[in-house]
From TrEMBL:
Subcellular location field: Cell inner membrane; Cell membrane
Chain's role: Virulence factor required for growth in low Mg(2+) medium and for intramacrophage survival. May be involved in regulating membrane potential by activating Na(+)/K(+)-ATPase.
Membrane-spanning residues: 12-30, 42-62, 68-88
Pfam families given in the database record: MgtC, MgtC_SapB_C
UniProt-recorded name of the protein: Protein MgtC
Organism for this UniProt entry: Bradyrhizobium canariense
Record membrane topology: Multi-pass membrane protein
Length: 238
């Protein structure tokens, strides 16, 4: 058996140290994710870290540092596909980006472990845990700050619910009314709203606005024949 001639106890223990390091640090990262009930929890982060360590360690033994560098490049791109699986889009909201980034960081921890850089793997684990825990209060504090519509850039949508008979006139009037208020319209869509009603959705050119001015447009359009409801909403730019 070729195994009997190629097996070296020192190399085997070196691999065990790399895998054990990735396992321990992956467990620390994954435990925090599991506690917060994220899609990629304890087992996923451990497997990502250990798998990355195994590939890098294998390349180190077969082709030295040059082989490890090439494998690390593939690990970085390969984890991107895995991270895409935990990202979900729900309407205007995108969820799972932080979980995907944590998986990416777990792979980096595993790569460090596989390259026998245990201290660097430990340091990176500390920074990943700090990013997911210590920064949380700061994020919550920032999110509680009210949005200043007049000083922030965002995407605004003006929605007008009308009867089918009023659609042609109200679509033109909506665009005219918004542009007369100095809010140019980037796009206009019509969506079926059920119960024989249609919804005109006008997306404004990204700009800062005065909420009071849009409320005046709402009040004006709601008085028009065939209009059932008028409103506007904002989504901040990422």
């Amino acid at each position: 058996m070729r195994f009997l001639t190629t097996f070296q106890l020192y190399d085997f223990f070196d691999t065990l140290v790399s895998l054990a390091t990735a396992f321990v640090f992956g467990t620390l990262i994954g435990a925090e994710r599991q506690y917060r009930q994220r899609t990629a929890g304890l087992r996923t982060n451990v497997l990502v870290a250990v798998g990355a360590a195994a590939f890098v360690d294998l390349a180190m033994h077969l082709d030295g540092a040059d082989g490890a560098v090439r494998v690390i490049a593939y690990v970085v791109s390969g984890i991107g596909f895995l991270g895409a699986g935990v990202i979900m889009k729900q309407g205007m909201d995108v969820r799972g980006l932080n979980t995907a980034a944590t998986l990416w960081a777990s792979a980096a921890v595993g790569s460090c472990a596989g390259a026998d850089m245990v201290a660097q793997a430990a340091a990176l684990t500390v920074f990943v845990l700090a990013g997911n825990t210590l920064l949380r209060p700061l994020v919550n504090a920032i999110n509680r700050i009210p949005l200043d519509e007049q000083s922030s850039e965002a995407t605004y949508q003006f929605k007008l619910t009308v009867t089918p008979e009023a659609l042609p006139d109200m679509r033109d009037r909506l665009v005219e009314r918004l542009e007369s208020a100095k809010y140019p319209v980037a796009d206009v869509d019509v969506v079926e709203h059920g119960d024989d009603l249609l919804e005109i959705v006008a997306t404004l050119v990204s700009t800062a606005i005065d909420p009071a001015e849009l409320e005046m447009v709402v009040a004006d359009l709601e008085r028009q024949p065939g209009v059932r409801h008028a409103t506007w909403e904002v989504s901040t730019k990422d």
